[in-house]
Each structure stands twice: as structure tokens, then as C-alpha cells.
Design brief:
With about 575 residues, the chain is of the alpha/beta class. The protein has 14 helices and 24 strands. It has a five-stranded parallel β-sheet with strand order 5-2-1-9-22, covered by helices on one side. A five-stranded mixed β-sheet has the order 8-7-6-20-21. Strand 16 (about 340) and strand 17 form a beta hairpin. Helix 1 (about 30-45) packs across helix 11. This is FAD/NAD(P)-binding domain-containing protein.
């Protein structure tokens, strides 16, 4: 269905103020973010048409794609859910990838979200027309490319789902079975095999303990050191039947448990500041525990434990079983990057050669840059070029000079300093507010002011200079580089982000209006109340004033009893320095 586009302001003159005009939205991706957007639009917006294009055969994004042995989320399972949608029957402290896939798949079914989704349809291009987007979509079942149009385009494609083979010469020479953790072949049997494993990031840390007992030998190739968190209680233990019963049956028990865990998740920011007591103490504890788990193996301590960057520069992952697996007799650790593949194995940068004739597994992750994988063109600019080196977003939500284009988990979103999914919810709420504003104010286009983006990036860089992320480690927080531009993380805590985007700062946006007149939304002079036969036309008359605060700071004090508030914007060195 193609909705009529109202390009003339006259249509509003016989309607009351804030009359909603139809809006057509295209969303890229039906992972967690795309599903949340569909849920929010369905719940809060009237007169919308939504199509969610998903390249995979099923929904759930990265949790559909990643199915390697041991794959799980390193966030506690009861808190890797939507804030309003608990699940009572998680198997253990950390949910497996299959359980998480099931959670989001069931979410799509429960709220009838599949009506908006087209699977096996991959967006391959988008071009701004001046009043909307022409979007090119490839039907992966037929190979045909079609064009769809929309008023507003939302990119919910995610950051960790564009997997890639490592940039190593000789991939086509290897005669054994070549696997990638993000494209796992479940038919491959590793029992009794001589296996190579490239990488010691999150995927490699989860995979090794799962395959070590099966393989005859595992050779692990590590390009660099990593902090691995063998923290007590983070072993991923299963829940007992009694715990599951209490979660499911005792009123308030699961909510209290979730809130207790979430308070801990929301208290981690101080650890990420360089030279602080919090960071130093956490480092000392982790150093002691890593040495203990490595069982006195000095060569492993020297190769694995970082000495040139602080704890937290790279994401650390719960990995007690990983460290224990490294010291098993059938595991060999090579502290060198792989320079080249041969028919039988790997030549390393240190000159050594290692035979891994049966299976070679690349736990080498994803293209973690924010450069779109397809052209997104507005005017004479392609976002692929603009975001090729140093992606600069407006609060993780939009890009200057790309109208009616919004992102979920765009650059500098809250993905490492507190809970993730509540940040996705907050971004979806923000997008709903922008769509509502477009509908009710006769707007043709909106885009963040380039000056606002520059001010935010300046604030980001100043904040990040004080953190451990600025240390010289190679990390996907920096789009895979070892530089000092932190492109992935929000400059602050998740709670800080929620306060930042709770209200739309319309002064940071540039708007263009249909017909060139910003006041046509005033309509025929009547309010919405006057046209509703069930409304009370004296709704504001009352016996006493209510307690609902109007000022942002007072609202924050109600939400945050600690007294941490947002100060007034606009003072000091720029729009973000004092406000954030």
C-alpha cells in the first residue's frame, strides 16, 4: 500500500491543530532494535505504514546468526530483556544464543510484529529525493531488486552483525574445513580433530571451553593480550529448579532480582576512568585472579595479560572456563598474529608455522566500522564516505545533512557503560517522538544541525580523553583501530544517556515545512479536544494544583533520588559541555 503524500499545506486548514498526517516508515533490520521500533510504532503512532526489511530468513539479528558452540550473552539473562518484558524460564545466569533468539522471536509473535517484516530482503541502497527516500531492496529468494519509498528511513542494522573473514592471505589455500563463528556450520564434527582457533575476543573466549574437551588438539592464535574476567559468580551457572519456581511464581521476586542486577550494571562507569582507585582496584583483583587461573604458566601470563593498556580499554568478557581451558594439555597457545594460511595450517608473523590440518575457526568478529554497507545518498553526499574514517553522529541517532534518516545503535550509543537494551528502548522512544512531530507539524524534512554534531563530537573527545578507552589498544570501540577516536561508546553511563535523550532538543534540529510555512499545523483554529465528543472541555479546572513538575531538573530529581541532575544547557563552552 502506498500512502498519499500531502505536499500542500491547504489540506490542514479544515482540520484541528496537530492533526496527524499519514507517515510511511522503512526500517532496516529485524533484530532486537528493529523489533523494538515496530513495537513502539504500533503502540504509540496512528496513521503509519511500516516495512521492516531483514536480510536473514528469520528475525532476531545477531542472535539468529551466531550459533557457535558456547555462544551466549555476557549480560545476565534476566537483564538481557526489554525492561517491560521479563522472561521467567532462563536456564542459567547467562542466556545461550538459542534462548535469546527464542526470546526475541517470541516477542515478535506475541505483539504481532511479523505483519511488518519482510525476511530475505536486503537493503542495497537509499537515496533522498528532497521529500522522502527511494530505497533499493534485493529479494534474496529471486535475486531481483525492487524500489520502495518512505517518508522516514530508520537504520536498525546493528553494529556486530556484518561478519567478515580475517584479512589474511591464503584463505583459499587451506585444505581443511574453514569456519567463522558468525557463520557456523553445525554439521561439522570437531571430535578428535586437530583444530586451529584464530582470535581471543568475546567469541573466541566463549568458543574454546566448548570445543577443547572435544578436539584432539586446539591451537589458539592470539594477536594481542586481553583482559579476561574470571570474576567469582560469573561462571554462567544454571539456575536451580527452586530458583526458576520463585522467578515464575512468587509475586515481586523476579522484579526485585532484576532490579538488583540492574543496579550493579548501572554502577560500572567509574571503573573506566584512567588512574582512578576504582580502575586500579579492579585491575589488581583481575590480575590476581587471571594469574591464579593460569596456574603459574609464566608464558601465558606474559602473553595474555596486558601491560600497555588499562583494564577496560578492550571489552572484557566473563571467561573463567576460558583461562582454565588454556592450560589444558591439548591446547597450544601461539602469541602471534597469523600472517598467511597454508594448505595445512598457519604461518605466523613471528616466523613460526603450525599445522592445523582438520579445522580452522576464525573467531575474528565483524566489520565494526559504522560505514554503511550500502550507499546512503543525500544531495552530493554518500554516508559511506562521510562515515568511512571517523563517524560523527548526533547522539547516536542521526547524521548531519541526511534528512529524515534515523539510527538505532548508531555511533556513540550506550553499548559499553551500562545496560544495552534500555538504551535501544530510549532510542526507539526518541524516534517515535520525531515521527510524531513530523506527523503533527506539517514537516517535510528534519536533520540535525551540523554545528550540533560538531559540538557533541567535541564533548565526546574531551570526555574520552580521561578514560581507559583512549589507551593504545586495538578495539571495536574504535572501529577496529588502536587510535584515540572512540566511535562506539557513549561518553557517559547508560543512565546519563537516558536523561540526555528523554526530551528532544528541537533547537539542535533543522526543519523544512511543506508549503514553506511552519504554522499550517495550526489548522482551522480548533483544538483536538473540541472535536472529540467524549472529551471534557473543562479538563483543566481543578480544586488544587498537581505535583507534576515542569522543569527538567525537578523531573530528574523525582526519577533520581540521589540528586544527580542535568544542569541548564547553553552555559559554558558549548551546548553539550555544561549540559552533559
Amino acid at each position: 500500500m502506498v500512502l498519499k503524500s500531502f505536499t500542500s499545506p491547504e489540506w490542514r486548514l479544515d482540520k484541528p491543530i496537530h492533526t496527524e498526517r499519514p507517515v510511511k516508515v522503512i526500517c532496516i533490520g529485524a533484530g532486537a532494535s528493529g523489533l523494538q521500533l515496530a513495537y513502539k510504532l504500533q503502540k504509540h503512532i496512528s496513521g503509519f505504514s511500516l516495512t521492516v526489511y531483514e536480510k536473514n530468513p528469520k528475525v532476531s539479528g545477531t542472535w539468529y546468526e551466531n550459533r557457535y558452540p558456547g555462544c551466549a550473552c555476557d549480560v545476565a539473562s534476566h537483564n538481557y530483556t526489554w525492561s517491560f518484558e521479563p522472561r521467567t524460564d532462563w536456564s542459567g545466569l547467562y542466556g545461550t544464543s538459542q534462548e535469546i533468539y527464542t526470546y526475541f522471536n517470541n516477542f515478535a509473535d506475541k505483539y504481532a510484529l511479523r505483519q511488518y517484516i519482510k525476511t530475505q530482503h536486503q537493503v542495497v541502497g537509499a537515496k533522498w529525493t528532497g521529500s522522502g527516500w527511494n530505497v533499493s531492496i534485493k529479494d534474496l529468494t529471486t535475486g531481483q531488486t525492487v524500489t520502495d519509498t518512505c517518508d522516514i528511513l530508520v537504520n536498525a542494522g546493528g553494529i556486530l552483525n556484518n561478519w567478515k573473514w580475517p584479512d589474511i592471505p591464503g584463505l583459499n589455500k587451506y585444505s581443511g574445513t574453514l569456519l567463522h563463528t558468525a557463520r557456523w556450520d553445525e554439521s561439522v564434527d570437531l571430535k578428535g580433530k586437530n583444530v586451529g582457533l584464530i582470535g581471543n575476543g568475546s567469541s573466541g573466549i566463549q568458543l574454546l571451553p566448548a570445543i577443547q574437551p572435544l578436539a584432539e588438539k586446539v591451537t589458539v592464535f592470539m594477536r594481542g593480550p586481553a583482559w579476561v574476567s574470571p570474576w567469582p559468580g560469573l561462571e554462567g551457572r544454571p539456575y536451580t529448579d527452586e530458583e526458576k519456581r520463585r522467578f515464575a511464581e512468587e509475586p515481586g521476586h523476579l522484579l526485585a532480582y532484576r532490579r538488583s542486577v540492574e543496579r550493579g550494571n548501572n554502577s560500572i562507569l567509574p571503573v573506566f576512568f584512567k588512574g582512578t582507585d576504582a580502575n586500579n582496584k579492579a585491575r589488581d583483583v583481575m590480575l590476581t585472579m587471571m594469574k591464579e587461573k593460569l596456574a603459574g604458566r609464566k608464558e601465558l601470563e606474559e602473553g595474555l595479560i596486558p601491560t600497555t593498556f588499562a583494564l577496560g580499554c578492550r571489552r572484557f568478557t566473563p571467561g573463567t572456563e576460558y583461562l582454565e581451558a588454556l592450560v589444558q594439555p591439548n591446547v597450544q597457545v601461539v602469541f602471534s598474529g597469523v600472517a598467511e594460511l597454508t594448505e595445512q595450517g598457519c604461518k605466523c608473523e613471528d616466523g613460526s608455522e603450525h599445522a592445523v590440518p582438520d579445522v580452522l575457526i576464525c573467531a575474528t568478529g565483524f566489520d565494526a566500522s559504522y560505514r554503511p554497507r550500502f550507499p546512503i545518498i543525500a544531495g552530493n553526499k554518500n554516508l559511506q564516505d562521510v562515515w568511512a574514517q571517523n563517524p560523527e553522529s548526533y547522539l547516536g541517532l542521526a547524521a548531519a545533512d541526511f534528512p529524515n534518516y534515523l539510527t538505532i545503535l548508531g555511533p556513540n550509543s550506550p553499548i559499553g557503560t551500562g545496560p544495552l537494551l534500555i538504551g535501544v528502548e530510549a532510542q526507539a522512544d526518541y524516534i517515535v517522538k520525531m515521527i510524531d512531530h513530523w506527523q503533527t507539524h506539517n514537516i517535510r524534512s528534519f536533520a540535525p544541525d551540523a554545528a550540533a554534531v560538531r559540538d557533541f563530537v567535541a564533548y565526546r573527545d574531551q570526555f574520552m580523553s580521561k578514560t581507559v578507552w583512549a589507551d593504545p589498544c586495538r578495539s571495536w570501540y574504535k572501529s577496529g583501530s588502536s587510535g584515540d577516536k572512540i566511535t562506539a561508546l557513549w561518553p557517559g553511563s547508560t543512565l546519563h544517556y537516558l536523561e540526555t535523550i528523554r526530551q528532544v532538543r528541537f533547537e539542535d534540529w533543522k526543519f523544512e515545512y511543506e508549503g514553506g510555512n511552519r504554522f499550517t499545523y495550526l489548522g482551522n483554529g480548533q483544538s483536538q479536544t473540541e472535536t472529540n465528543p467524549d472529551a471534557d472541555l473543562a479538563y483543566y479546572v481543578r480544586e488544587e494544583d498537581d505535583d507534576m513538575p515542569l522543569a527538567r531538573n525537578k523531573m530528574t530529581r523525582i526519577i533520581n533520588k540521589t540528586g544527580s541532575v542535568v544542569v541548564a544547557e547553553g552555559a559554558g563552552e558549548g551546548r553539550f559541555f555544561s549540559g552533559l
